[in-house]
Amino acid sequence: ARADGWEVVHGIVDSLWITDVSGRSMPERAAAAQRLAARLGAQTGIPLDVEGRYPVLAILPRRSDGAGALTRYWGCGVDEVKVRG
Description:
The protein is of the alpha+beta class. The chain has two domains: about 1-50, no CATH class; about 55-85, no CATH class. The protein is built from one helix and five strands. A hairpin with a 2-residue loop joins strand 1 (about 5-10) and strand 2. The radius of gyration is 14 Å and the shape is globular.
């Protein structure tokens, strides 16, 4: 991902959040994300889908130690708000 201008922000069993660090436009980011998913899917043998774009993502802290909880987050998407946990 880094070689393609992405930084991994968060990942859990079935999800991966990445952010563009190369300054691409929104259409360029969308196309690049699809290419990354296809490449990673080909390398791992696991089909990957780009499910959404979330310009704002909040990973909520765990109560026990304040570290980011794996499954508690919300994201403000282009067309939706996604809340988990």
